[in-house]
Amino acid sequence: MEKNIELAEQLRFLILAAERQGGRMLQSALSKESITGSQAEVLRVLEERGPLSLKELGLLLICEGGSPSRLVNKLVQEGYIIRDIDPKDSRAVILRLSEKGVEKSRRVTLVEQELYTMISRKVPNGKLEIINQFLSEMLSTEPIADSLIARGFMK
What integer best gives the mean pLDDT of the chain? Predict the structure, then answer.
């Protein structure tokens, strides 16, 4: 196999392993909150950007492609999200956090900050900047770039 192809394969699996390990670390940290990483992202986006329509929310999520309706339904059942009728369009629904959802999102923020602190201790700032720049360049032409840009994770 050509050396460049071997390196590309290695990169693919390193990214996959890093994503899986990061997911495990986040899920372990969130276990005391009884919430998944994807559910946590929905709450955080609604806290930061809400209220939002389901479509607007879906465009901002990194964890889920397409419509996040399944995630939202579960969070509505748990009492974290409230569905309101859009005053501009009675057929549309606007999503917002309940008081319980705001409180859960704030606890999730603390959990995430602990995780980010742990990662930043393992990887020096200079290397984090290089890795983030490389991944931003790699993803810049992919559909997920729109969500990353909208969330401020890429330029």
Answer: 93
- What's the gap between Cα 72 and its chain centre? 14
Torsion of CA 64, 47, 81, 28, to 10 degrees: 60
Distance between first and last Cα of the chain: 35
CA angle 148, 154, 155 (to 5 degrees): 125
Q: For residue 104, give both structure tokens.
A: 């859960």
pLDDT digits (tens, 9 = 90+) for 15-57: 999 999 999 999 999 999 999 999 999 999 999 999 999 999 9
Is residue 78 helix, strand or coil? coil
Task: Please give the model's pTM, rounded to 2 decimal places.
Answer: 0.89
SS3 content of the chain, % helix, strand, coil (to 5): 70, 10, 20
**Distance, CA of 135 to CA of 132 (rounded, Å):** 5
Instruction: Supply the DSSP string of 99-149, one letter for each residue.
Output: HHHHHHHHHHHHHHHHHHHHHHHHS-HHHHHHHHHHHHHHHTTSTHHHHHH
